[in-house]
Amino acid sequence: MAERLAIIVLVAVMVTAAVLVIRRWNARRVIELIAQAPLWDALGESPDGRRTLVAFSTPSCAACHTAQAPAIKAVEQQLGAAEIRVIKVDASKQPEVARAFGVLTVPSTVVLEPAGRVVAINQGFAPSRRLIEQLEGA
Q: What is the C-alpha to C-alpha distance for residues 8 and 12, in angstroms, rounded to an integer?
């Protein structure tokens, strides 16, 4: 019994350590992206003076279509097309763009200031409230 408990504790410690390492590594990557020059070339777009939301998805991503897409639509309706621009990227067809932005999973969203610098990166689903806060802060 004591051996099983020791194994369970050891596995829990290892999983916790792995999660912490991955989170730290991801946070460092986000800081590096924020410090980079604008990534307009990777997108194949040019700045137009609006804050930009880049939404990464794939055709097979259920969360992208059932959760993230409605959240992005709500952001567009609340802030309006004159205030923000939404660029949708299919990560399966444009993996080089996803790589340039450090996207590890879909759905992911990236908020860019009008000049094109990264303000925030959301790996996984981001609710409309969070996206609006990030866009307003850009």
A: 6
